[in-house]
Amino acid sequence: MPSWLSLRFSLAYISEFNMSFSHDMDDEYEKLRRRMNPPRVVIDNEACKNATVIRVDRANKHGILLEVVQVLIDLDLIITKAYISSDGGWFMDVFNVTDQDGNKVTDDGILDYIRKSLGPDSCFTSCMRSVGVKPSMDHTAIELTGSDRPGLLSEVSAVLTHLKCNVVSAEVWTHNTRAAAVMHVTDKETGCAITNPERLSRIKELLCNVLKGSNKFSGAKTVVSHGITHTERRLHQMMFADRDYERADDNAPDDKQRPNVNVDNWYDKGYSVVTIRSKDRPKLLFDTVCTLTDMQYVVFHANIDAEGPEAYQEYYIRHINGSPVKSDAERERVIQCIEAAIERRISEGLKLELCTTDRVGLLSDVTRIIRENSLTVTRAEVTTKAGQAVNTFYVRDASGYPVDSKTIDSLRQAIGQTVLKVKSPKDLKPVSQESTTRFLFGGLFKSKSLVNFGLG
Per-residue pLDDT tens for 293-310? Predict the structure, then answer.
């Protein structure tokens, strides 16, 4: 071996060894710190008359607040109050939580899961490092971003059905003319993940063409992987990367509907103070903390109050480099991104719930019928449990009009009266002459829908 080649090989080996050694040292330091300062979780159902109090103490690191909040929201718990402090390398947090019905959390299984997930025996820190890279042979994950338009979900679903892919779960968000989706699919024949490289490449190509539509210059992206990730956090990251927070003047909502977000600097302490007032809703805290974390800000102190219809959030933050918000442009970007994070999950439109036996092509058929009745999907959650499809769609009239009762009657006749339920019938618009005319044209599709869907 020539001496110069031997030297290059040796240097590369040393570099790789140093990187591995550094990573191992970090792991050992983390383990030592956890042994010296083990996490402590205290759950108290006596301290507050209307909520369960959860106290979490553990060594601090970037992203830990998001990890804790993520555990709680994944259990569908409602966080009504929170107090956060993480100065001095130690994270101390208090959460007041209830179940979905507003009651204290008394289920021993849930309480034990919280203790194990956040306590000294948890592998939460090491598990979080593998997010996005852990292989899964149960399904193939497809991530989609592109310009939103009426019927887009129907077109995507039709392509997947044509490619013999079964959608086992999916979540779709739309915001500010942009759309993002995370879909888990399996092979129609085997029921397992799709691994053939040529087939995966074909799936990416066709889906990207659908996302581009007639505008070949619009930003569209399709990613196919076998990784496991947190779907809602990933959707935030995808829409943030797609810059959905940049709002066109003609697309700006009424100021009364927008969250009130302010960013001021507390120069004496070196913090930027972010205050947020908005209508409360489930997972609001997660959406805000997720965005601050992904924007590389560290929350040192926070006060959360969401016991009424309005939520108040106050964060004392610095950038990960230790500096507060430095300029008006950075301040405006923080405000825009937090507003977008809050608005993405706001459920615009009429809520429809579908529950029926799952089958290949079900999502394609349902979304086609929704499109044929001149409705567009603004948000969707698709799940499969024990062979049953449980899907939620938020829909609105593609022309911008309120959805009328005649249109919903048409949907339920095509899909099945007991299969499709309207969760907020009070929002339905009474039938008008205009909607009746539109329904008659919609009838041109009715027979085809009934035959192909097989549920009527």
Answer: 999 999 999 999 998 899
